[in-house]
Write a structure and sequence with these properties.
Number of strands: 12
Oligomer: single chain
Strand order of the largest sheet: 2-1-3-4-5-11
Order of helices and strands: HHHHHEHEEHEEHEHEHEHEEHEE
Shape: elongated
CATH topology of the largest domain: Rossmann fold
Number of domains: 3
Largest sheet: 6 strands, parallel
């Protein structure tokens, strides 16, 4: 066995010498056998050195990794999946918004969640694919190591199938009663309490809520937080609900909150796209914002167009995504995370729609 060449340049020179010695292979990508041959170790040792496994001397491990970097060796994901019985792929399923499978892409929060989860997964060495919700049969056609299920319905067959197959998945806080469940999300009840307390600090004695007519976990928890706040503060409960994919129905619900003798002095909506509907309803009913009515909404009012004067509750989708991917990756890599239930804080951005110069 000859002397091992030292330095990155020497390693790079060694690789083309080896591949051009075989006719027709001058352009092939370097493989693990090339790394092993140049570093003058066995293929098994080279693999252990690159994977951080096995009992490999630190000097040998460093040399193997230097060789791999110098000749730009990239491990085959397919080959690695055969060795480890893992696909290094995770799924992301988002509950249908308004009954349409891909409608959520028009919602700022879900679009940001998807983008951030994809980027975070790639950084952790996982590909991310989008799974249609409530379709357990899809798991018979694709292979995933784990999944993130955003706001599943109580009867989501996909989560049942994942449980049956033993595939770990991260869900929202609706599963927090199960100590073994992996959960990441916002405390929506606490978030609504924060909004109502802000309204009260600006002189509003009564608060109304505009909600979707769905059964999403964030709606259920937000409503509970609102009702609890009203009970504790002796404030009347005033709630209107409508389909978020029916702007006419949602606008009528907003109008109902702006009229009548029991009209609330402030209104909050959990639906970002309905934020501007509240502003329009106030104008139609000759109410001045914020003098006559205070307004706030969750997330941005309309995807891609933020109303700068409208107070918004940011659910921090990027942080939710990062925490979900991290929790799932730790579980898949047998790191046994202690904090299996993670609550991501919300941020209230106070703007002109809920700020009075003097409170009454």
């Amino acid at each position: 066995m000859g002397p091992v060449p030292e330095g990155a340049e020497a390693y790079r020179r060694e690789f083309p010498t080896r591949v051009t010695s075989s006719a027709g292979q001058a352009d092939r990508r370097p493989g693990i056998k090339d790394v092993a041959a140049i570093a003058q170790v066995s293929v098994g040792t080279a693999s252990d050195a690159l994977n951080g496994s096995g009992r490999v001397a630190s000097r040998t491990r460093a040399r193997v990794r230097q060789v791999a970097e110098a000749i730009e060796y990239r491990p085959s994901t397919l080959a690695r999946s055969f060795r480890t019985n893992k696909s290094h792929t995770i799924g992301l399923s988002i509950r249908p918004f308004g009954g349409a499978p891909w409608q959520y892409l028009a919602v700022s929060y879900y679009a940001r969640l998807l983008s951030a989860a994809t980027a975070e997964a790639l950084q952790r060495g996982y590909a991310l694919i989008v799974l249609p919700p409530n379709t357990p049969q899809i798991l018979g056609r694709i292979v995933i190591d784990g999944a993130i299920i955003a706001d599943p319905s109580p009867y989501d067959l996909l989560t049942d199938e994942l449980d049956l197959l033993g595939v770990p998945f991260v869900s929202d806080l609706s599963r927090m009663d199960d100590p073994a469940a992996l959960c990441v999300g916002n405390d929506h009840a606490a978030a609504v309490t924060t909004v109502c307390a802000h309204f009260r600090s600006q002189g509003a004695r009564s608060v109304g809520m505009l909600l979707s007519d769905g059964t999403e976990d964030y709606n259920t928890r937000s409503l509970h937080g609102y009702q609890t706040w009203c009970a504790r503060n002796g404030a009347p409960v005033r709630v209107e609900r409508a389909s978020t994919v029916d702007p006419v129905a949602m606008a009528k619900a907003a109008d109902r909150l702006m009229t009548g003798p029991d009209r609330p002095e402030a209104v909050y909506t959990t639906e970002g796209p309905a934020g501007h509907l509240l502003q329009e309803a106030a104008r139609r009913n000759d109410l001045r914002v914020p003098d006559d009515v205070l307004l706030a909404c969750a997330e941005v009012p309309v995807a891609g167009r933020e109303q700068l004067d409208l107070t918004t509750l940011n659910l921090n989708a990027e942080h939710v995504a990062a925490q979900a991917v991290d929790l799932l990756a730790q579980t898949l890599e047998d790191q046994h995370p202690i904090d299996r239930h993670r609550v991501v804080d919300t941020t209230l951005h106070v703007r002109g729609s809920s700020t009075r110069t003097t409170s009454s």
